[in-house]
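S.,

As promised, the zinc ion run. Input:
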Amino acid sequence: MSILIAPSILSADFAKLAEEVKLVEKAGADWIHVDVMDGHFVPNITIGPAVVKSLKRHTSLPLDVHLMITDPLKYAEPFVKAGAWGITFHVEAVKDPSAVIAEIKRLGAKPGLSIKPKTPASSVIPFLKDINVVLVMTVEPGFGGQAFMADMLPKIKELSSVIKSNKYDCRIEVDGGIDAKTGQLTASAGARVLVAGNSIFGAPNPAAMVKTLKKITA
Ligand code: DX5
Ligand code: ZN
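Predicted complex:
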């Protein structure tokens, strides 16, 4: 399975998102990662469905929406209607992840489940058979530009082994502090989608960085 690159627009210039997204699309990015924060589940506020709707008009790449919000069941629909291709929510945010997964599928989008650094792999294992991606946070969610937590590598390996042994159709996505070095480390541990914000949009040449990340192999 090849490694997919999902630039996170959190580190892009929000005043020229269309240009930023076109730039990474042209450079070979696979998905566009959209970080949604509500100031409640995480201590930061970012974007809502209106921005997704506008972005959708400027890219043909799948919009990979990462909901860091308290009520994903309520907001899945507006984001899918706005053009989200995938909706990933946090296992820590809800009592019944299956109900949210079912709702995302009903809406015609790809479901994903995310786990924070302190949450064990066991909390998502029962749902791996039903989701498109499991998003392992490699920083505490809330802000871009934080340092990669190397102690997440065993969690990635554990999930990878469960996915492989059961032949689940689920990719491991990693998010937080991903650059060429940590991208290679996580890919070797089993990650198949690399989210990268600061290392791409904070680089002097974001397109060159996308191309560098695209060369990472498992
Ligand atoms: C953090 C977000 C990430 C963030 C990653 O809460 O979920 O997607 O944009 O940014 P970098 O790559 O800068 O760590
Ligand atoms: Zn994210």
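The chain is about 35% helix and 20% strand. Residues 65 and 188 are 25 Å apart (CA to CA).

- D.
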